[in-house]
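FAQ: What does the model actually see?

It sees only this:
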Amino acid sequence: MEIMKKTILGIVLILAVSVFGQTLHGNLVLPPGAFLWLTTDAATEALGGAATAANDPISSGWANPSCLFYSGAFSAGASYCYIREKTLHSEIYATKRYKDWAGAARFFLVDSKDIEARTAPTSEPDYTFDSHQLYIQLTGARRIVNIANLGVSAKWVHERIDQDNRDGWIFDFGASGEYRFIRAGIAVKNWGNKEMVFRLYRENYPITYRTGIQAEILDYAVIRADWVKPDKLDGWLPLGAEGYIGDYVVLRAGWTAFHDTRNISGGIGVRFRGLRLDYAVVNYSENLGMSHQVTLSYVPVTR
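And it is asked to produce this:
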């Protein structure tokens, strides 16, 4: 069993390196600043982005740092997302829990090229530019009573848009609690005051407020609902449900209400001896098309 665990972990790490090799050397396009939202796993994307009260080790570290306590003894993995032609992102992560404490580290990377800039609604852009983003995230969570947790994440972010650069620290704060089959959570994400100056335009990191609930239906299904409100933008309502087919297959469906670019989503997951492979497809409106995302992870402690 110990040899099998090491083998599975090795496969995850090898594929993670492969994922980042594709990301670093690809020809990519992603709207500036979007990476601060496009940082989740395939399972969460399939559920409409609902994750504030999640007990999944990947999505919990992304949406609400306090939920990291539910991650189990150890997990590790890699994520690769293809949104449309020339648009993708990827990450590597690892989590560990010990008694009443849990911690995680994540590395997320986007390299975008040929982004079109326009000063008027014309068919041809005025010019094109490149955008590069990465961040390193460290997360800690602690159980304070039997049913409640607190958590915080520190993220070092680097972003370059055309010839303009910024570096800085931003933080996530979260709390969560559970009672029987119900779990609830709240979080404040991307707290900080670092501005990005792009020619005559100034952009703050997008502070985002989240609240959510998750309910388990017997041992066969999970339902999630969130409310997400970025600062100075309209909020949206992610809804999602997943059902288990035996011990190996998970089916997922989601809907993101009131969002200006995405709507329905779905996906499937396969689990075997701690190894998880998740796939998600998301329908984006206007000219963004469909996104396809795959997450490979190793989670010895299952649901």
